[in-house]
Design brief:
The protein is of the alpha/beta class. Helix 4 runs parallel beside helix 11. It starts with 9 loop residues before the first helix and ends with a helix. Bound molecules: adenosine-5'-monophosphate-propyl ester. Adenosine-5'-monophosphate-propyl ester binds next to helix 11, strand 20, strand 24 and strand 25. The site of adenosine-5'-monophosphate-propyl ester has 23 residues, from helix 11, strand 20, strand 24 and strand 25.
Amino acid sequence: MSDKLFSPSKEFSRKARISQMERYWEIYNRSIKNPEAFWGEVAKRINWVKKWDKVREYDFVEAKIKWFEGGTLNASFNCLDRHVEAGFGDQIALIWEGNDPSKSTTFTYAQLLEKVQKFSNVLKNLGVKKGDRVCLYMQMIPELPIAMLSCARIGAIHSVVFGAFSADSLRERINDSTCKILITQDTGVRGIKNDIPMKANADKATAKTPSIKHVVVVKRTGEIVNFEENRDIWWHDEMEKAEPKCEPEIMGAEDPLFILYTSGSTGKPKGVLHTTGGYLVYTSYTHEMVFDYHENDIYWCTADIGWITGHSYIVYGPMANRAVTVMFEGVPNYPDYGRFWEIVDKHKVNIFYTAPTALRALMKEGDDWVNRNNLSTLRLLGTVGEPIKEPEWLWYYNKIGKSKCPVVDTWWQTETGGILITPLPGSTPLKPGSATLPFFGIEPVLLSEDGKEIDGNNVSGFLAIKAPWPGIMRTLYGDHKRFRNTYFSQCPGYYFTGDGASRDEDGYYWITGRVDDVLNVSGHRIGTAEIEGGIGKANGVAEAAVVAYPHDIKGQGIYAFVTLMTGVQPDEAIRRGILEMVTKEIGPHAKPDKIQFTPALPKTRSGKIMRRILRKISENDIEHLGDTSTLADPSIIDALVDGRI
Ligand code: PRX
């Protein structure tokens, strides 16, 4: 923990929406004392066709949550039509920067609206109706947000599947929510990869997805791809034929907006479901306050839209606020390590939001890449996805922000829809590595193992939230029981986050990481059970256990302990087979960094794997293995220690 304190400059605070801590506390206290009045007021920031009857209704024991019930609206109307009707049609909505540095384009709000209306009609022509699920499996191309907003326009529920997921993962997700349409692209380009087989993966996946009626394919690269007559159609062909006008469907506040799959502690991914009204209110409000967004600011969030950060803070939040938002197809190190800073310079970015893993990777390449570019337009920096440590925080603050830009370390989750714990940049004194204080309306608590609230400061425990906020998910698609069990039953009466945290002497929160079997690898969330399932299918493998170990760039690396079938010898082919199987089952981002073959796994007499021991071995911390006497076969420890990688 750092005891350094960084206060916002007078220059920043003077123009900020919240410029003093007194003001923060005043609004915060009001939001907690009377949440209904507070959120009722905030909700006026978006356009409602009909006002709600009741601001909030909830029961955390039954896991029932409703916001703005009775209200009606349309998310795409709020993100597009509203701004065009107010006379801002010519304002730039989206700056798209291609993987190739010579390629970038812009879309005004009017242009986006035109495309969204047409694509909405394409979907309608394909038989998509309100409540139908549409799967989007794409790289970071403009058609992705266009397709999302088109689904929102006609009341279809989008389910975006991150473009690095394998065909098997895609199939599982399509089948879980029985999607009717799949939208993809021919092939993708990202960094040095110029032939990511998106359509080919989609074909493999849809070989066993009976619910898919059509596959819409965007021509991104022009590569020749397999085309199935009657089922597959080109995006551009249909767009040419589509009618230009499509009235937005009037949606209930609690009608689903999207499903986004995330990892939990079992192998089966969870279809987190967000609804329309509360999500839009929450993402637009947090986007404006946390990033201190002002008219004409150029805002860039480097996340992939395949994850929640992209949904909330590239598409819905910024567009509901009529922001200018940058979307980047490539990666931070292509064509070289200066790419991020070159883009900041090129598009005169004012607000920059990224992940600590990217900062670590860039920091180690030295400051030359930074110094080559003019970063003077930057006003505010942000991070998300994992704890940020002091060295990269200081580098970000000093080298990128030139010691004048506040750094907002924002803690939140797929499930929370938007940011929950964060500094407000014009007021909160920053401590490197701390997400600091709760956003308005959020009541974090620390709980002990037995679910009791731990009061006071200088304490740590499980991080939970006491009452709902408008952006919280409403269920897991098709499995409300799992929703209740996962988030509301371990500590009845609270939303259980799955993270551990401490609260320091100033009441600041420091997130220590997951307390369940979920890993955070380069900011990507992956369940150990998913990886173990993948390894288990590889040739010769009997059993696997996966743990995280500290990794310089990725934050957490994946360490797999693997036992082989009797008679099978560990060799390069077996190792390669494991990596290939994990890539096939999940995707390349889930490949283990280290594989240790072992004659057995450390199990208790009841057969439970003692992960604590594996974690210590992966961290090379042999002195602190702890009590091993409950192991069925304590002699396995020597073999595990000897076999360390
Ligand atoms: O462990 C926390 C970590 O990321 C998890 C949520 O992952 P996901 O649902 O993929 O959403 C990531 C983007 C919102 C959390 O349970 N996490 C996220 N932000 C932070 C963080 N850990 C520490 N500090 C953060 N700022």
